[in-house]
Design brief:
Distance between the termini: 62 Å
Number of strands: 5
Structural class: alpha+beta
Number of domains: 2
Radius of gyration: 23 Å
Strand content: 5-15%
Helix content: 25-40%
Strand order of the largest sheet: 1-2-5
Length: about 210
């Protein structure tokens, strides 16, 4: 098995102007990383590169020069730039046939030859699309159960019942918070219920 290359350690902070531009892109795929890390391998040639945002069908890469070097764009010398770039067409030969996740004409090795920096946090837009897809995949009973829970939480009716202790309510609220991070399908419901229970616990403590 071929040993994977280590990732470059170079990082850079997004400027206010870059943040405003990236935040304004339609259909963002992931949350912005305030200090993106270069996604090329350690000791790579050329510029540093990090995927800043994927918007609809476009990929925007932040490209910056190492050290005190400068880039040249349209005849002007610059330190960095956001650039819309196509995906690298390279595919790993053999078993998994992984695609390269870097930009076209990137310097150095392909992404499948390197360690991974991990997945990005999906944006609210992307999560909404994935939730819709998960919901479509539910069987009839599971969908009916989900719709019943949504209906129950949307209603203000129902008398409080003294069935659990304060400590038990706290544990349930904590468990719901954990479930919200592990199951996107019931995340909103778990958060709603946890917030209601926590507010009642706070009221009891006053």
């Amino acid at each position: 098995m071929t040993e994977l290359l280590t990732l470059c350690e170079a990082r850079t902070a997004l400027s206010p102007i870059e943040t405003i531009f990236l935040t304004g892109l339609p259909e963002p795929a992931h949350e912005l990383v305030e200090e993106p890390r270069c996604e090329l391998h350690d000791d790579h040639p050329g510029v540093h590169m990090a995927l800043a945002q994927e918007s609809a069908t476009d990929s925007w890469w932040l490209v910056w020069a190492p050290g005190n070097a400068q880039l040249t764009a349209r005849g002007q010398k610059i330190d960095r730039r956001l650039h819309k770039m196509d995906n690298c067409p390279a595919v790993q030969e053999g078993g998994d046939e992984d695609e390269c996740l870097l930009a076209e004409k990137h310097p150095g090795a392909h992404s499948f030859e390197m360690e991974t920096s991990g997945a990005r946090e999906p944006s609210a837009f992307s999560r909404k699309k994935m939730l819709a897809a998960l919901r479509e995949d539910l069987d009839d009973k599971a969908r009916a159960d989900l719709e019943e829970m949504e209906s129950l939480l949307s209603s203000a009716s129902g008398d409080p019942l003294p069935l659990i202790t304060e400590n038990e309510a706290l544990v349930i609220a904590m468990l719901l918070g954990q479930a919200a991070h592990n199951d996107w399908l019931v995340e909103d419901l778990a958060i709603q219920l946890a917030e209601r229970m926590e507010s009642r616990l706070e009221a009891l403590a006053r």
